[in-house]
Amino acid sequence: MAAYSEERRDESGKEMLHKTKVIQFLGRTTPIILQNDNGPCPLLAICNVLLLKNNLSLSPDITEVSQEKLLSLVAERLIDSNSNVNSKDAEYAQNQQQNIADAIDLLPRLATGIDVNIKFLRIHDFEFTPECAIFDLLDIPLYHGWIVDPQSCSDDARAFLAIAPRIVVAAIHRIKLSLQSFPASLLEPSQPPQPIDPLIGISLSRGSAPPTAISAAVHCIKLPHATATS
């Protein structure tokens, strides 16, 4: 992993170091890696997940560790966890070796952050990218989420208003796909839909026919009112 040594330096030319902290996790003592500055750092996230899963070895006595060392540990884990391809055919083994090599080449990017394209169907849906493949090869699930601060600035409000319609469209598309396996007779109401409870989203009164699944889903998606101010 010598190729990383020239890249893991701070602005002063010193080797980038991260402090560690020893914690108790599920009855086991393990170190975790701490950030130097607030901001995205997938490398530290990956290392901490592997440490908590006991898939990465780091002595609790070490008080700090270099980024070069962390990159080396992750690269070793990539190779070790994907080396058992004896039961696979030659083509699979060759493709897997190439995937591992590509992932190792991308590891330095993890130190500063990566760009991913999310899909709105599920919290674990992403467009495939080489960076996302690193998480797959390490058997680390990746999720996306966003909690909007009610006191946030106008930029967050504008962003939410831009994203919310996409979430609704994606949800309706997913529901339509799931309804394709249902008989049409089950999807039509036997009588007009009952009034929608604004707090629940659909009528739950006994004996009354619910609205169609698509209508119910649309009504169940309540979008908070966000006001964009300049």
Automatic annotation (TrEMBL):
Give all residue intervals belonging to the MINDY deubiquitinase domain.
18-152
Q: Which GO terms describe its biological process?
A: protein K48-linked deubiquitination
Q: Which GO terms describe its molecular function?
A: cysteine-type carboxypeptidase activity; cysteine-type deubiquitinase activity; K48-linked deubiquitinase activity
Q: Origin, by domain of life?
A: Eukaryota
Pfam families referenced in this protein's UniProt entry, alphabetically: MINDY_DUB
The record's GO CC annotations read:
cell periphery; cytosol
Record-given protein name:
MINDY deubiquitinase domain-containing protein
